[in-house]
Write a structure and sequence with these properties.
The chain is an all-beta fold and 91 residues long. It is 0% helix and 55% strand. A two-stranded antiparallel sheet has the order 1-2. The chain has a two-stranded antiparallel sheet with strand order 3-4.
């Protein structure tokens, strides 16, 4: 499953073999101050040839790195939307 946009909200090609998009619904519930529960409902695109899957990612913004070698050696780079954790949440 591929997504466009930084937050994956727009699915452009939900399943290989079709240009139709899948439909998704996300519900998030606060369980405690530092805990959340999420329910993802994924409805396959018409004519889909492969099953879909939902994944949960934890991203980091404002990540910095100093390049040590290569053509960008010595450069200081800033990164957003760095995936730190990737978990398949279901099919």
């Amino acid at each position: 499953m591929a997504a466009t946009g930084r937050n994956g909200a727009t699915l452009n090609r939900a399943f290989k073999g079709t240009r139709d998009t899948a439909r998704t619904h996300l519900s998030i519930k606060r369980l405690a101050d530092d805990q959340f529960g999420a329910t993802v409902t994924l409805t396959a695109a018409p004519g889909a040839t492969q099953p879909g899957a939902a994944c949960w990612t934890v991203t980091e913004h404002g990540h910095n790195s100093k390049v040590k070698t290569g053509e960008n050696a010595g450069e200081f780079l800033k990164h957003d939307f760095v995936v730190r954790q990737y978990i398949q949440a279901g099919k």
